[in-house]
Amino acid sequence: MLRYLTGRVLQTVLSMLVVISIVFFLTRLSGNPVHLLLDVNATERDQQILMHHLGLDKSLPVQYGIYVTNIFLGDFGKSVLTRRPVVEHIWERLPATVELGLVGMVLSVLIGVPLGMYSAVHRGSALDTGARVFAVLGQSMPAFWLGLMLILFFGVVLGVLPAGGRGGPLHLILPAFTLGYFTSAAIMRLTRSAMLEVLGSDYIKFARLKGLHEQVVLWKHGLKNALLPVVTFAVMLFVQFLGGAVVTETVFAWPGLGRLILESITTRDYPIVQAGVLVLSSLYLTGNLLVDLLYSYLNPRIRHARS
Amino acid sequence: MRAAKHEVPWFPGLILGALVFTAVFAGYLAPHSPTAGDITQKLIPPLWMERGDWEHPLGTDRFGRDVLSRIIHGSRISLIVSLIAIGVAGTIGTLLGLISGYRGGVTDAVLMRVTDIGLSLPTILIAVVLVAVSEPSFSNVVLVIALLLWPRFARQMRGETLAIKEQDFVALAVVAGRSSAWIISRHIFPNVVPTLLVISTLQVGYVVLLEGTLSFLGVGVPPPSPAWGLMIADGRGFLATAWWISLFPGLAMVLTVLSVNLLGDWLRDHLDPKLRQLGRAAVLEAPAAASVGSPVDETPVRGAAAGGDGA
Question: Rounded to whole angstroms, what are the CA distances from A93 to A70, A245, A256, A272?
Fold first, then answer.
């Protein structure tokens, strides 16, 4: 177990370093931000002064070294455009992303678990078929298109929900569903198969033989045991929402971190792109690490196979 | 639906057949040019609406370009990107997986750590940054997708190789003094082909969605090419007035991905009962194996990692 643990932590650190390197080198190779910042009349000397000021005149490896050191010191630099510390920009946007991710996760569990349970218990019924069509569709639909169609239907045609932006709870419904549909489909499939497995087990037969009420059998003995994979999966999904926030945030004009990254790519504001990707990736990687450890701790089959 | 598993999947087969047909003969089938539009014909609604006509059955966009023709030509982009990206990623991944599984030891340890890192990256985020800074272009999109895809192949192929390596015919070949390369290419590779076919099919949907997402975000195939994601993005500003610009390319995408996923599931059930069992044992792997990776949510690859190790 200890060996697995250290190996897994080490791998996460390595992944993080890979992300840092990818982001650093690519943003540096993509063109000079100085040209975007100065107007056309700027002289050669103006450019040099600005380059020096931004630290862009040093060699790439030196810039990289300074960058990595600063990250470990918690310094992400300043935005090229606003000259404000990058950390401030990130903190402004992070709550919106986390909020959307959390609501999306809760929504997908609320949709996926009951659907999956019902589907398993009433296997072969019309609703089972319906639920499975819902699941298959959810896994084949591009989220950005689904988002637009929801805006079209609920925002434009019916006019009952806001089409974008962040505000009250109403603003959350469409983006959270867009984010959660794919996931609720996956959770539904997972709950269904886990429930089917549990329902076929001896202790469920025994509980029924004891004459327990069917609802007690299903919810207390059934769901409780089927839930472990579902819960770990749900946490993992939340983490992955963070990684994929770019799309939904763009569709719904949601002022989160994903959209900040995309905006900063257009303005070539490297420090923000780097820090944004780094923050989202580290949340993603540590989240996955925690889920892995939790899962292997809870599941003795994996625990022993690994050690 | 349970019974349907044993029947030939005619619906996805038909859709995919039609798709490939339109992609190949796009030049003959499309009534108009996909990129040149007549500005006087802009924002014409589809056929069945008022002002709609047979000239533009699915309407026109803001430049007067025919939506149907663009969808037809767009199918080419989706298919070609999928074919090349999966071809490249599949070749690299399979090669590394075979070597890793067969050699074992340090080679395996190093290759699989690299694979793990590849699998652990937040795909969309990295793809967006990679394409955006390396100038959006057709070849960059393909390259980046292939780069993010190969670890999935490597992981699965290694698992397969490990299982086949234990078979008697491999041991006999070793005793007979055959070289590693000979054994891998003649004995192991032919046995992993069915699995390879299944994984490749299951990845097509993922690639189509990923390419669509990149195009939608403006970091994919550049305009004016008729990539479906690009068309959907084009219609964003016209949702209230000209919804057809975004609706139809999206439908084409859903149908395509749905068909490939259904076909992939069917193939998995028929060609490769082993993979199916593997999927059941590691419950978490199901979404990954079904390749459902929606662009929004990363496909849960860590499940696949856990399942692969057990094989």
Answer: 22, 12, 5, 12
